[in-house]
Structures are given as structure tokens and as C-alpha cells.
């Protein structure tokens, strides 16, 4: 404890920007939802979980700069992880709706909004809310040919 500061804060510690507990709750919720989707498609290995952690850390800074943006964090983290997986492993999550044509990834809609959903942009259908890929019949279809299920 710093004798000059009876609050018990360590020297050099600051309360930071006004992100508050709401921002942290939004970040933790986003992390949990994305991890649930990754686990539903059997791609939540240590390297992929690290990608989620990197995105959450980046979005923590973003929410500190724009606290009103906390409502959009889940969709943004989903897009961040999707982009990182594309660069390192391939498309994710693969569309469980389309049976013909090349395998393609679901998109996140709205791109910047609340209540983000995984959408097949080719068929124009909502597949699941972000965090719910493991729910229902469509959520269980996630394998690609060879390689990791859900990453193709």
C-alpha cells in the first residue's frame, strides 16, 4: 500500500479511461460466445484461443476509446477471429447450408451492430446468432473435407 495514497492503489496505477465494468462484461461475453462457436466446430485449440485473446485485447483498447461501442464488440471479435483464421488456417465457420459449389465461410451481420448473427451471404439466410453455432441442426454441421472441421 502506498502511504501517500490511502486507497490502496499501487504507485503508477491509474483508473484509465472510463471503460467501466460494462465494457469488461461485453468483452468477456464476446470472448465466451466466440469460444463457444469455435468449440462447436472443433477448432478451439490453443493457437486459435490465442487469436481470440489477441482480438479481445485489441478490442479492449477500442472500447476504452469509444465506450458506447461496447454493444458492438461481439461482432467485431467474431470478425477479427474469422480474419485471423483465414490468414493462418482457412475459412471459418464453413457454411452448413449450401450443399453445392465451393465451400465458403459464413459472414457476420450486421458488420457493426448489436445482436450479430452468422449468415450465409450466398443463400441469404441466418444460420445462428454468434455464440450459437452448436445449437440446432445447422450448428452441428461444420466439417470440411480433410483438415480441421469447420476450417477449410
Task: Describe it.
The chain has 152 residues and is mainly α. Helices cover 41% and strands 8% of the residues. The chain has 4 helices and 3 strands. It has helices at 20-40, 46-65, 73-88, 136-140, and strands spanning 107-109, 117-120, 125-129. It has a 3-stranded antiparallel β-sheet with strand order 1-2-3, covered by helices on one side. A hairpin with a 7-residue loop joins strand 1 (107-109) and strand 2 (117-120). Helix 1 runs antiparallel to helix 2, helix 1 (20-40) packs across helix 3 and helix 2 packs across helix 3. The longest helix has 21 residues, at 20-40. The model is unreliable at 1-19 and 137-152 (pLDDT under 50).
Amino acid at each position: 500500500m502506498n502511504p501517500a495514497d490511502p486507497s490502496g492503489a499501487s504507485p503508477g496505477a491509474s483508473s484509465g479511461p472510463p471503460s467501466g465494468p460494462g465494457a469488461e462484461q461485453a468483452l468477456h461475453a464476446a470472448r465466451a460466445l466466440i469460444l463457444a462457436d469455435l468449440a462447436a466446430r472443433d477448432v478451439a485449440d490453443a493457437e486459435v484461443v490465442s487469436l481470440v485473446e489477441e482480438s479481445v485485447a485489441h478490442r479492449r483498447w477500442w472500447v476504452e476509446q469509444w465506450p458506447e461501442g461496447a454493444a458492438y464488440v461481439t461482432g467485431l471479435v467474431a470478425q477479427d477471429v474469422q480474419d485471423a483464421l483465414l490468414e493462418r488456417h482457412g475459412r471459418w465457420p464453413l457454411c452448413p447450408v449450401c450443399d453445392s459449389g465451393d465451400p465458403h465461410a459464413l459472414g457476420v451481420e450486421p458488420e457493426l451492430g448489436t445482436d450479430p448473427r452468422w449468415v450465409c451471404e450466398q443463400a441469404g439466410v441466418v444460420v445462428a446468432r454468434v455464440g450459437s453455432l452448436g445449437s440446432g441442426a445447422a450448428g452441428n454441421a461444420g466439417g470440411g473435407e480433410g483438415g480441421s472441421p469447420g476450417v477449410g
